[in-house]
Structures are given as C-alpha cells and as structure tokens.
Write a structure and sequence with these properties.
The complex is a heterodimer of chains A (about 190) and B (about 300).
Chain A (H helix, E strand, L loop, with lengths): L2 H16 L18 H11 L2 H16 L6 E3 L2 E2 L3 H16 L8 H28 L11 H27 L1 H4 L13
Antiparallel strand pairs in A: 1-2
Chain B lengths: L4 H22 L7 H10 L2 H15 L12 H38 L2 H5 L5 E9 L9 E4 L13 E4 L2 E9 L3 E6 L8 E6 L13 E7 L5 E6 L9 E4 L12 E10 L6 E7 L9 E6 L7
Antiparallel strand pairs in B: 1-2, 1-12, 2-5, 3-4, 3-12, 4-5, 6-7, 6-9, 7-8, 8-11, 9-10, 10-11
The chains are: A mainly alpha (about 190), B alpha+beta (about 300).
C-alpha cells in the first residue's frame, strides 16, 4: 500500500473531522456532524491486505484519539484506545465479510461507514465502561437515549458523506496500490 | 521458509499492539499526560489544513449569537433607535428643504428671461395660504408669514403660481401677508400685452395688442382694443406694466376668453380676460420678493 497516499488521506480526513465537518453540522438536531475517518477506515479495510488493514486501522484510531475533543482527560492528556480499538474491531468485521460484498460499489462503502460509526461507538462505550470499573478511574457518566439517537444520526450522516467520499476514494484506488500477499486480485469485485 | 515472513511478524505484533492499547486505555489520567505532547506532534501536519477549514467553516456558517446571555443589547438598541430617529429627522428636514429648493428652481425656470436678467432678480419665497373667503372669488387672501421671510417681501410684490400672476402683496403684517388678486377691483388698471398662445405655430405678430386691463370685480379682467387687432380667443395676456415690479413683466395674467364688439364704439372691441390660475385654488403661492433680506 502506498504510504504517502495513506498519510495524505489521513491528514485530510483528520482535518475534515476537526474543521470542515462543522460546515455540515446539523445544529438543530444536536450538532450531528459527518465523519470522514470511518469512511477511510472502511475503504482500507475493504481493499488492503488483512494485517495491513489492522495496523492502519489501529494507527488511524490512535490519530483520532489524539485529536482535539476526543478522549480528553484533562491537562491536555488524551485517552488512547477507544477509537483505536473501535477501528480495529470495525476492520475485523469488515474483513470477515468483504469477500462476499461488492467492494467497488459506493453504496457498499456507505453502508459499511454507517456500521463503522456504530461499531466504533459501541467499542468506545465498552472501553469507557471497563475503564470506569478500574478503582483508580472515576466512573463513567453520560449516555442515555439522546446520545444513542445522536449516534445513529451521526452514523447515517457519515453514510451520506461516504457516498461522495467513497466515489473519490474509488476513483483513486490505483494510487493506493493495494496488493494481496499472493499478488492475486481475484477477490477484487 | 515462508514467503510471508514479514506478515507473520506483523501478525504477532498486532495482538501485542492491541493489548498495549487496551492497557493504555485503562491507565489513570495522570499516567497519560505524555499523550498531550504526542497529540501536539501528531497535529502538526493537520493543523494548517484544519485552520483553513475552520476559517472556511466560520465564513460559510458563522456562529449563532446566543440570545439569552445578559448583554447591553437593550441600551445599544435604544441608542441606535435614538440615533436613527435623529438622523431620520435630519433626513426629512433636508428632504423638505430639497423639495422647497426644487420648487423654487422650477419656479425660476418658469420665469421669463427678462425677470432673471434684471439687475435685482427677485427672491423666490413660497408662502402658504392661511385664509380665504370662499364666497368671494376676488377677495383678499391671507398668507402665512414666516419670520425669516418677512424682510424679503414688500407691498406690491407679485405672487405667482407657475408662470401665472395671481395677485400682488397688499400688506405685510407682523404675522401674515395679504394678497390682493389681480382681478380684485382695487388692483386698478393694469397695462398688459396680448400675445399668441403658440407664437411658433402662429403667423400673427408676436405682440397682438397693448391693452389696459380693468378688473370687473367678479373674477375677470376686461380691456378695449382696436377692432383691427387680430386678437383671438385663448391668446395670452401678459403683464407689461411699469407700475408693477420689473420681475413680473412677461408673466401671464390670463387668457382671452371672449371678444365682443361695442355698440357705442364700432371701431373698438372688448376682450374678456380670465386668469388661468387663482390663488385660492392652491395651497401655496410663490412671491417674487423684492426685499433686501438674505435667504437663510
């Protein structure tokens, strides 16, 4: 996989999530914003070799965890793990089914992007709850139906964003130089 | 020897990385202070693009001002309203002034050139009518006298509406002005000339007759002319009297509405002149003031 393209795409996705996404924020519905990073994770999980996909998902998760507004603990510290593990689980699930889906369809990326947001959020919740059980950590507060509804709104909105974003990613798939370890491309559909 | 040694190493490294990540996720906050520096490093390539993105975002979707915060909005609004009213007042005053000046300009444009070439051109003063006698068409008319116009109007000044003379100032009082219509019996004889109403389309002489008008007391003027004069109905009667202010020469006193012969003088004809404008039919007249007062 072309690392340069990956870095550029990651920077753009991070920049989008921390700035441009505000343009599309639905203020009247509780500030629901689309996310670009899950779309990128889905795209890589669909086409990259398995191990590479896992590592890239983990790294992208780290980057998201270190982004402003994500897992901040106070004094500038960031909680590393929720997004990293969430993206890894998402990648794991996609890798399980990617051989039976039409990967080069934009709708596939959009559908998986919706699922990626939900799965990542579920892993985040699991990590935070587990962390809250630790005696040295304060218990987790928050959640509720409002957050749940917002999560689904974010997931659907991300799925909508995945349509143009997926088209862009599929249009540049040649630059990514995804190769399977055996060099076969039989699984590309 | 496997062809995929590298990937197998990665496969072993991946669970280790995930386990380390889980450990990190369970760390207390005090042990993760180093992530702030890591975040700073990671954000270095992202920040410029993110900055541009936020500028675009703030331009495309500016922040919504909170409406429930305690502010000095009320005072600022009151101040703005007061300021607005003040400038609106000034604006209306200037609009009135501009309208008045436009009226004066229009009046001046309607004046004959002889009036404007005069060494002492008249001062145009607009006066509002404040009283008339509705039952008498020729009765004196009361005009409002404002403080700054009192010195500019003298007795005998001409009052006009458009290009038509409607009378002369009979008296300038402390608070009001009396206007004597030209058709009033006390106006006396008026020397005038009869000219074609459309001199460019008329082959007749530019000056058809010189007449001495006499008010009849019922809103008209009459004059006798020689029967050989080619005067027709609707010809204009213009002022040409040295006893009147010079600025009034050439202004219209009325039109010829009737021409009749005199039985007792077969070589003479009587023309009846009807004013085109009457002061009482207007709310305002213009006085061609000959006073020395300066316009304020």
């Amino acid at each position: 996989m072309n690392v340069i393209v990956l870095i550029i795409a990651s920077v753009l996705a991070l920049a989008f999530d921390s700035s441009f996404a505000g343009i599309f924020t639905l203020r009247s519905t509780g500030s629901i914003s689309p996310q670009a990073m899950p779309c990128l994770v889905v795209f890589i999980a669909l086409f990259a070799p398995e191990t590479t996909a896992f590592f890239v998902a983990l790294c992208l998760g780290f980057l998201v965890d270190l982004s402003p507004g994500h897992g901040q603990l106070g004094d500038g510290a960031h909680l590393i793990g929720p997004n990293a593990l969430g993206f890894v689980i998402t990648t794991l699930l996609i890798l399980k089914v990617r051989n039976v889906v039409f990967r080069r369809r934009i709708m596939t990326i959009a559908f998986f992007a919706v699922g990626a947001v939900v799965v990542t959020a579920a892993v985040q919740a699991f990590v935070l709850i587990t962390r809250g059980f630790m005696p040295w950590n304060p218990p987790v507060v928050g959640g509720g139906f409002g957050e749940f509804a917002k999560l689904f709104g974010t997931a659907i909105y991300t799925g909508l964003l995945a349509v143009p974003l997926g088209w862009c990613l599929l249009a540049t798939i040649g630059m990514w130089k995804f190769h399977s370890p055996s060099g076969r491309k039989a699984t590309w559909r | 020897m496997s062809n995929y040694g590298t990937f197998r190493k990665r496969a072993k490294a991946l669970p280790i990385a995930i386990v380390i990540t889980i450990f990190f996720a369970m760390f207390p906050a005090s042990w993760l202070s180093w992530t702030s520096d890591l975040s700073d490093l990671v954000r270095v390539p992202v920040t410029p693009i993110s900055h541009v993105g936020l500028m675009i975002k703030s331009w495309v979707r500016p922040a919504i001002e909170p409406s429930d915060l305690p502010t000095d909005e009320q005072e600022r609004q009151e101040l703005a309203v007061a300021e607005r009213d003040h400038y609106r007042q000034l604006y209306h005053a200037q609009m009135l002034r501009a309208t008045e000046l436009a009226d004066q300009l229009r009046t001046l444009q309607l004046l004959p050139k002889t009036a404007l070439r005069n060494p002492t051109p008249p001062l145009v003063v607009s006066l509002d009518l404040t009283g008339i006698n509705p039952n008498d068409d020729t009765s004196t008319i009361e005009l409002k006298l404002s403080r700054h116009t009192s010195e500019r109007i003298l007795e005998g000044d001409i009052a006009i509406v458009g290009r038509d003379i409607v009378g002369r100032i009979a008296r300038v009082g402390m608070t009001r002005v009396e206007l004597l219509p030209a058709t009033h019996i006390e106006s006396g004889f008026i020397r005038a000339g009869i000219v074609p109403s459309h001199p460019l389309k008329d082959n007749r002489a530019p000056l058809l007759a010189e007449v001495l008008l006499q008010p009849t007391g019922d809103g008209y003027l009459t004059a006798e002319i020689s029967s050989d004069r080619d005067v027709q109905e609707y010809d204009l009667v213009v002022l040409d009297d040295s006893n009147w202010p010079v600025s009034g020469n050439g202004l219209v006193l009325g039109i010829v509405t009737n021409i009749s012969s005199l039985d007792e003088a077969p070589l003479r004809k009587v023309v009846k002149v009807t004013p085109r404008q009457r002061a009482r039919e207007h709310a305002r007249v213009v006085v061609l003031g000959t006073g020395e007062g300066e316009e304020e």
